[in-house]
Give the backbone structure.
Amino acid sequence: MLAIKPDVRLAQAEGIMVQAIPEIDHYYAFSIMGGDQFKLNYTAYWVLGAIGNGVNFQTLLDEFAQNFDLEEEKAKEDLAEVIQFALENNIIKEIDHEDYEEDREIREA
């Protein structure tokens, strides 16, 4: 199982677009830089949307457990699986505090 510290910040990687066609239950992540495409289920789509421009793991876990009505341990297992896949495929990244603050300043400008 993926070991993630509660205070680690996660963010969507550069060049990743997440799209949904909910009417037909299709969810995708696209790399506009590398051309990779990933078909997602709704849970993975929700996680990537919640991560967006940056969120710490504990906040994400709490929201995930509440949104999907899961016990904390089950939520942690399911969330770790999605995050591991997304990290391995460069869909999301871990960011340090300085990078997060810099990204936030750019977004707010």
